[in-house]
Amino acid sequence: MADLERRRNEELARILHQLGWNPERLAREVNLTLPPGLAISSTAPYKWRDRGMVPRSPHDQTVCEVLGRALGIAVTYEQLWGRMGGNRGAKILSPHLLTDPWTADTAQTALREAATDAGPVRLTDLFRGADLDQAARRLTTPPPPVGGGEGALRIDPGLVGDLGLSHRSKQRLERACGGGLVLGPARAELAMVAKLLELGGYDERLGRALYGTAARFARLAGWAAYDLGHEAAAQRAFVAALRAAHLSGDLRLGVGVVGCLVVLATQSTGGRGLDARGLDAVGALAGALEAAGDALGPADRALQLGRIARAHGRRGEPAEARAAAELAFAELDGRVGAGRPGGKDFAGPDGQDFAGPDGRAGGLDRGAVVGPAEGTGAASMAADGYGQVRADLAGMVGEGHLFLGDHRRAQALLAEAVAGLGDGRARARALLMVRLADSQRRTGRHGEAAATADRARALAAGMQSERVARALRDFDVASRAGLPGEA
Length: 487
Description:
single chain, 20 helices, mainly alpha, 487 residues
C-alpha cells in the first residue's frame, strides 16, 4: 500500500511559493504554451503538488520550461519530478515502447528511462513484431526537428568527440570483460548526455550529433544489460537507441540497432526466432536492410545478413538459412575482390563499431585503397578489420547451423570464428567456444568437448558475463547427465 500514499512534491511547492503562484496560475501558464488540444484542467497542478503525481509528456517538460522562464534559471526534469518515483504516475513510455510519437521529446524520455536503474522491467513491456517492422520503415523517413537546444548551458562541439572516446573505451571493456563491468558507467554517461540534450544550447547539427552519441551509449547499455540476462531492460535501452539514432539522421546506426533487437529475439526463450510477444526476427531485419539501401557498406550488410541466417536457423528453415549465409559471405568476399577491405565502418555482430588500433571508431573509409604512402600499417589495419568481420560472420552462421543440427558445418564455422577473434573480443570468443564444445559433445567427441569447454572456462575467468556463465553451466549439466542436447 506504500505506493498509494500521497507524497507532496516539495520542490514544486517551493517554486510556486517563490513565484507567488497558485496551482491555477501554473495551469494557465502551461495552457498558454501548449496547443489547445493539449490543455490541462485548472485542478491538475494540485495533484502534482499535493499528491506527487507526475504529468505525462509533453506536460512534464512544459512545466519545467514554464517555471524556468519565470524564475530566470533552468528547472530540470530530475529536479522537479525525479524524486517522485516511477509508481506515482511518472512519465514513462507506453507498454508497447515503439508506438509513442517519434519526437525529440519522446526520445529524451526513452533515454532517461534507459539510463535509470529502476529495478526489473516487466516482461509484459516487450513490444510486438509489427511495432518493430513499423519502426524499421520509419528509419527511412526524414528525422523530426531536434527540438530544444535553447537552454542556457552552452555546449562545446568538441565535447562530442570526447564523449565518443569515452564510449569506445567502455565498448572495448564490455567486449573483453563482460557487461557487468560497464553497465553502471554506461548508464551514467547516457544520463549525462540526456542531461546535455535537456539543458543545452545547440544548433541542429550539434543536436543531431549529440543524439547520435546518446544512441551509442544507449546501445552499449542495452548490450551490457543483455549480457547480464536482463533482456527486457536491454530492449528498453535499444528502443531508446533507435529513437535517438533516428533523430541523429544516421540510417546506418539505426539499422544496427534494429539488428540488436533482432539478436535478442533470435536468442530469447520464446524460441524459433520469435520472442514471447511474437517478434519476427527475420522479417524485421530484412525490412530494415531493404529500407537502408546503399546507406550500408558491404561489411554492414554481410553482418546483418548473418543475423538473418542465424534467425532462419533458429526457426528451423535450412534452405533460407543457407541462402542468407551464402549472400552474406558473397557481400564480404565481393568487397575484398574489389580491393576494398575496409568498408565505410566496421560493425561487430552486436551492432557496435569496430575501433582501429588508435582507438578511433570507423575503421576505414568506404573505397579506401592502401597506397605506398600509407605504408603497411594501414594495410594491416584493413586486414585485421576484415578478419574480425569474417570471424563474426562465421560465428553467426555457425550458430545457425547448430540450431539446425548440422554439426559438421557448425563446428567448422565455429572453429574458424574462435580462431579469428582477437583478444579484445574475449567475451564473444568464450561464448562461441562453449557453442563449439556443445556441438562436439552432441556428436560424441567428449574429450574434445571437455578440452574446448576448459579453454572457454579459462578465458572467461573473472568475466562479468551472465551469458557466458549460463552457457558453461548448461554445458556442465548436460555433460554430467549425458544428455544429447537440443539444437
